[in-house]
Amino acid sequence: MSLKENVDFVKNELDSEEKFLESFVKLERFYKKYKILLITLLIVIIVAVIGINVKNYFDGQNKIKANIAFEEVLKDFNNKDALKTLKDTNKKLYEVALYLKAKKAGKNADVDVMFFGAISKYEKALKEKNISKLNDISMKDDFLLKEFALFNKALLETKSGKYTDAKATLKLIPKESKVYELVKILNHYLLTK
């Protein structure tokens, strides 16, 4: 019985070694068959990693340059070198600087930065007392001051005697809004109209 167990043990060991050698031979055949493709893939991966790191480095350097230029522009809005550097390195920060420069001069700036552009259009519509522009701005879902714009639209409608339009506009402002206290006051005034 023990001899049979020893023979089975040796047989199992030989089978496992044979399987190991067989898988090694398969791997070697696979490598020989796809050697050029594997080396090319490895080179592409190495070049991609190096390229990504170089790009990240230059992006970081541009951010540093842009931030320094933005600080200089904030100190002196007439610094043309800093504005040029900002324009070359970061378009959005450049437009924010233009917006701030226009604000300091008491003007409106047409900028294309998400919130600043919308706020600039909102201020322009308020200055012109243009109800249709206020309506266009306040109907955009992503507008930051949506409820406040609606309230100002209702206020302009009230001033121009369009009381039913003002009431309808005020109904668009949700009760959870921070502007709702002002809405209640204007609604109270509109009860008599």
Textual characterization of the structure:
- The chain is mainly α.
- It has a domain of 81 residues.
- It has 9 helices and no strands.
- Helix 6 packs antiparallel against helix 7.
- The longest helix has 41 residues.
State the gist of this model.
This protein is mainly alpha-helical and 193 residues long. The protein has helices at 2-33, 35-75, 80-89, 91-104, 114-128, 131-138, 146-159, 163-170, 180-190.
Order of helices and strands: HHHHHHHHH
Overall pLDDT:
80
User: What overall form do the CA principal axes indicate?
Assistant: elongated
Helix content: over 70%
Q: Let me know the largest β-sheet.
A: none
Give keywords.
193 residues; mainly alpha; 9 helices; 0% strand; elongated
How are the secondary structure elements laid out?
Blueprint: H1 2-33, H2 35-75, H3 80-89, H4 91-104, H5 114-128, H6 131-138, H7 146-159, H8 163-170, H9 180-190
Helix pairs in contact: 2-3, 2-4, 3-4, 5-6, 6-7, 7-8
